[in-house]
Write a structure and sequence with these properties.
Strand content: 15-25%
Number of strands: 27
CATH architecture of the largest domain: Orthogonal Bundle
Helix content: 25-40%
Number of domains: 5
Shape: globular
Amino acid sequence: MAKTLVLAEKPSVGRELARVLGCTRGGNGYMEGDRYIVTWALGHLVTLADPDVYEKRWEKWDMEDLPMLPQTMKLVVIPESRRQYQTVSNLMKRGDVTELIIATDAGREGELVARWIMQKAGWKGKTRRLWISSQTDKAIREGFQNLKPAAEYDSLYRSAQARSEADWLVGLNVTRALTCKWGAQLSAGRVQTPTLSLITRREEEIRRFVPKEYWGISAKLDGFTAYWRDGKGNASIFDKQKAEELTAKLKGKSAVLTRVEKTWKQTPPPAAYDLTELQRDANKKYAYSAKETLDIMQRLYEQHKLLTYPRTDSRYISDDVVSTLPERLQSCMVDVYKPLAQEIYRKRPLQVKYLVNNAKVTDHHAIIPTEEQPYLYDLSGPERNIYDLVVRRFLAVLMPPFEYEEVKLTLNIGGETFTARGKHVLNQGWRAAYDRSFTMEEEAEDEEEQRLPALRQGDKLPVFAITLRPGKTKPAARYTEATLLSAMEHPSATVSDRNLSRILEETSGLGTPATRADIIEKLFSSFYIERRGKELVPTSKGLQLVELVPEELRSAEMTARWEDKLAAIAKGKASDKQFVADMRAYATELVKQVKASDKTFHHDNQTRSPCPECGKMLLKVKGKRGEMLVCPDRECGYRRSITQITNARCPNCHKKMELRGEGEKQMFVCVCGYREKLADFKERRASAGANKREVQKYLAKQDQPAGSSAMADAMARWLEANKKDR
């Protein structure tokens, strides 16, 4: 009997597809049923070959061999995934397999995952495409009833492949040129470098900034405070003497209410979440990194099936999804969401004017709940937090606008103008979906909003106090992951060309919702940036790198040009071959610029400790989880942790402690001054009744950086020594 092979992107998705399709017989890397065989990739199984596959001499990093420009790009199987690739390849060659269904993630990168496997394995048979936005049983069944010919996505595949080849040609050549030129581990890329440039440019602005002192004047009246304004509406006085004289003049004067303005206003609900907006809010509220939020979303999508496809850049849904909204609302009728979800459900037809916009839906619609009934107690704390954000936003966008009356008072005190502003809520509208723990919008008011008493024009009011308030101008704030994601999504302000600026706004900006988290993580792992609290600060290495790379690579303009051409390729309106040819010429020019540079690079974090592998002096760097010593030689690659931020809590202040030292001298240190030897820590945990499972769970949460396994080793030895007591 002829069978259809279904290729998913991940094992978890593959097993869910297999269950819905009735594939119950397990194989090595696949599931089989009477009609379907479901197999899966592990992300990419096939990738573009490394340089040494084309030329043996390219194995060595040598400036004389640059640029590297293979005539034809080759595909190779990723060594770590070879076993699963062989499984997929063998299934494609089975005599009873007559059709293939591509069921990888529905997007540009997902298309590339499948097509490269098919190309490498030599698949030539009939192929169709599954394109779905959620992993519920209903969505899967409907998707298989509406399969599309794979040929409809050929242009999307060509766009993905062109992007990948261009990144190889430009990224590898420039990275090797920078590393060979300055003898340091340096790298560059069309998204990574402009993103780093955003951070370094902001840091330079902050360092150049000179604060100015200013003064403001406030008047305390019965039940509210008013603020001085000059004739142009400014509230700051930069002349201290003038401010003091004005304050003295106003003391003892009464106020006359000269104007009362009441304006009815409304604020529509915020649009539903796309991935970037969700990552921003998760960072602001829970301090989750972009990568953490994406990982949590993947679990809520694949494992729990509670939310729709995460890697989307759309904040709206299309008309065809509207009919599913009542069922999705019913799925939200649990826990704290139940009363509000029921209220919205009863007021059908649903108000979807702020949720539906066909023109703004791309490959996938906004992130919204699925029809799956949640069991909230099955979710981890972080999963519950992200689910909460999405559900509240989903409920909010189905509710009416927030309505209020804005009241502005203008007063005359001693011939000077003072104002006060207040807000009277008429209808909470969508704000009823939120509690007071998180303000969803950024409100930058130059004076405090307050509850104002009922007053009429002409009223005379006593002034209880006139206060001179000193202040200093502040520089622009450093980026956090939340604000950096915003800047990456909308980098058009940094581009002078109007057409390129428009392209950046119409496309996804720097990177895509799916890749921005990895870009930020790479900046950390390459030691170009470090975190101070929530702020992202460039290291000396990062600041120098931006100055060393060719100027074109620093700007988002190049990304705009790429995305414009890639979008045209995806629509069948441009040639992928011409684009790649242009990238060959571009890579050649960039290498030429690096070779001709007369700039210098120096390590200002060099220690006096020699590398035990190659003898070069180690560099002291600050990673996401603590401080490390790393070798500057790319080919050596030695690194060792010297301090590590752990999940172990201080018994005094309950903050996370650092683990310092090596071997038997390892010690926990807290910022409050508490210190504890590792041996004492283990003994304390054992006496507190920690069993083997708890300790293993604790270790799993450490997420140690590469090369930093000292604590894990120590704990493993302790577990081994205590086996006989279990």
